[in-house]
Design goal:
This protein has four helices and five strands; from the N terminus they run βαβαβαββα. The radius of gyration is 16 Å and the shape is globular. With 131 residues, it is α/β, with parallel strands linked by helices. The chain has a single domain, classed as Rossmann fold (3-Layer(aba) Sandwich). Helix 2 packs parallel to helix 3. Strand 4 and strand 5 form a beta hairpin.
Length: 131
């Protein structure tokens, strides 16, 4: 079964990634124009991709980001080729029953060492999402 991969946008980053992934077996690439009348969220609802890849520099529309983060069946992958960074967002949910659950999640997600350079994301860089 192929993985349906939406490539959002027309930036050089997205064009380059599309070219690099074009011959990878098991991937069905679905280009998405940012000016679609139904918006990215509507397009995703209609076409059901497994993953949406987008350019971190160009970003995603705020409403689409909130909609997609709320979905557990679509992973988001943001790419910044200049800084060689990839941001992965998935709708994976985990139960939080105790402080130990939280500590396990932090240890699983936090890098073992500090990154070579500080990250570029602050909480106020992202829109407020009410889920």
């Amino acid at each position: 079964m192929d993985h349906r991969v939406a490539l959002f946008g027309t930036s050089l980053t997205i064009a380059s990634i599309g070219a690099a992934l074009a011959d990878v077996p098991g991937l069905e690439l679905l280009p998405v124009e940012p000016s679609r009348d139904d918006g990215l969220a509507g397009w995703v609802d209609a076409h059901q991709p497994d993953v949406v890849i987008f350019d971190l520099v160009a970003g995603l529309p705020d409403s689409a980001l909130c909609h997609l983060v709320a979905r557990s069946d679509v992973a988001l992958i943001g790419l910044d080729l200049e800084t060689r960074r990839m941001l992965l967002l998935s709708g994976e949910r985990a139960g939080l029953l105790t402080t130990d659950d939280l500590v396990r999640a932090v240890k699983k997600l936090a890098p073992a060492e500090a990154p070579a350079e500080p990250g570029c994301w602050r909480s106020d860089d992202l829109p407020e999402c009410r889920l």
